[in-house]
Structures are given as structure tokens and as C-alpha cells.
Amino acid sequence: LLLYVTPLSIMVVGNDSSVTEFILVGFADLTQLQLPLFLLFLMNYMVTVVGNLSLINLIYLNAHLHTPMYFFIFNLSFIDLCHSLVITPKLLMSLVSENTISFEGCMAQLFFFCFFVHSECYVLTAMAYDRYVAICKPLWYTVTMSPQVCSLLMFGSYAMGFAGAMVHTGDMVRLSFCDSSIINHYMCDIFPLLQLSCSRTDASELMNSIVVSTVVMISSFIIFVSYALILSNILHVSSAQGWSKAFRTCGSHIITIALFYGSGLFTHLKTSSDGSIGQKKFLSVFYTNIVPMLNPLIYSLRNKDVRLAKTLRRKLFGYKFFCCKA
Prior knowledge:
Blueprint: H1 7-13, E1 21-24, H2 34-61, H3 68-94, E2 99-102, H4 103-136, H5 141-144, H6 147-173, E3 182-183, H7 190-196, H8 202-235, H9 240-268, H10 274-301, H11 304-325
Parallel strand pairs: 1-3
Antiparallel strand pairs: 1-2
Helix pairs in contact: 2-3, 2-10, 3-4, 3-10, 4-6, 4-8, 4-9, 6-8, 9-10
């Protein structure tokens, strides 16, 4: 029998909690809306999976989309897809039956949730830097954003996401859970778990605040500086064509940043009182379910290159179909 040992499994084995599984309440209190909510979230899940898989497939198969910008969009879609796979199935299960999750499964879900959220923050930051180089230093773009640099930025994004997720999960595993096992949420999130712990959580709350604040401040600072330099550059462009090109280049990214950071910050800046946990449960749906669904739509509908690639693929498929029929 082979045993696969990971840092997460080592941390879980060392935990002395008497609770072996949790119950995810989800939206069980909305008894009259269980079926409509199930259908709504199921549709959201299908659109998210199909949309992100389609964008990943489109970028992978079209050579003219093999550029730094689409390399980052490819990874953004991959993160959104994985994020949805981690969260939504358990949410759907909570709407049709009592949804239990093992202690190990809960910690694993928390780890991957934090990993993908942190990674997305850094990917959006790398995309802001990419837009700055494309607009402010176009002659140096191919040299500055070489494949090696892009790969290094992505590796750094995932590495920082992994580090943040390990800190969050490791800190949570060290806590003890003795009494209640009912999580007033549809997923294993940090604050609902802290409320269940029978250990002192002051240090854990401080550590989580430091990690989240560091991620937000670093990424926000780089994004702000990048777009400040972009704005300064386009203010010197007198032509309407230059303004239009800059907006087309940055528009989709700005909308994505506004949705992701806006919804996340609005949710997590709430206090951790009992009353606000219920509010956070509803507010968090936006950045766990809605944003991953909207991102591929934003980059597909607003992006001329993606629309062109879709048109070419449809024409190519039609031509092949016609030839086969002939």
C-alpha cells in the first residue's frame, strides 16, 4: 500500500480536534428557494466551466493568440475554472441534501480556495504590468515580456499563491474544533471556521489579516502604479485613435480588476460578528461564482482578437464540414 505524504496531510495528522467532519449549511434556511437556487447555481456552474474551457481551448489552438497578454488570460481562465470546481459542487450538494465534509476535505478545500484566490491576485497584477509595457514601452515589448519573463511571472504568481494558502491552512489546522461542527456557509472559509474553533483565535485572526493585507497592498500598489503610468502616457496622446486603442487594450482588465477586488474587499471588510457571517455568505457568491463566470465573457465580447479567432474557427470548421460532405 502506497502512502502519499504532503505538507497538508502532515499538518492535518498533527491536529487534535475531536470534530472529524463538518456540515456545510449553505442556503438551507431558504427552504422555499432550494430548487430555484439549485437550478441557478447549476446554470452558473455550466456556463463557468464551458466558458473558461472554451477560452483556454481557443487560446491554445490559435497561434496568433500566443502572445504575453493571452498567456496571462489563459492562466486566468485556468484559475477561474479550478476555483469553480473547488467551490460549486459542494454548494450544489448543500441544496439537495445534508452536505457533510470531512475535516481533511475541509482543510483541502480551504487550501485550494486560498491558493486560487491569491494566485488570481498576482496574475491580475502581472497583467497590469504587461499592459504598462505594451502601452508605455511598445518598442521594448517583445524583449521585456519575453516567454522566459512571462513564465517567471506566472511561476511567481503560483508560488506566492501556494505560500499564502499554506499559511492560512497551516494556521487553521493548528486550531482545535471541539463542540459545534456546523459551518454557516457553503464552503470552508476562514472566518466561519474561526468562529467554530474552541481555541483562542486572536493570533490566527491577526495572521490572516496580515497575509490578506500584504497580498492586497502589494498587488494594488503595482496595479495602481502601472495604470498611473499608462494614464500619464495616454494624456500626451492627442489623437482620439490613441485613446481608443488604450481603452481597448486595458478595458477588459480594468473591468476584471474592479469585479474581483471590489467584491472580495467588500465581503472581507465586514466585521466577523455572527450577524455578518450570514451576510458574507451571500456576498461571497459574487466573487466565488459570478466573477469566474463573467471573466471569459468579458475577454470574449470585448476583445477583437478573440472574436476574430472564433470567427476563423467557425469558418474553418464550416469549410472542413463542406469538404467532407462533398
